[in-house]
Amino acid sequence: MKIPAIKRLVESQTLQTLVEAEEALLDERQPSFEVEGADEGEQLTHVFAAIWILNHMKDHGADFPAALREYTKKVRVSIS
């Protein structure tokens, strides 16, 4: 997971285009825009993170840094 790649997606894509990219990656197809990542798994991680962050920003009126902190907290809990 690379924070700069997630930030670029949040800043450059809409929620709809990210959902479409997630579906494409799950179907082993190329998304309609470039998603950074060493492989499809990392690309999917970046897209999923961007979707989560955009939803959190919308639902809670949070800015990107606050939403990113919440997302990374969830990741840390899930892997510990």
UniProtKB/TrEMBL annotation:
Record protein name field: DinB family protein
Superkingdom as given in the UniProt entry: Bacteria
Pfam families, alphabetized: DUF6952 (PF22264)
Organism from which the protein derives: Hymenobacter koreensis
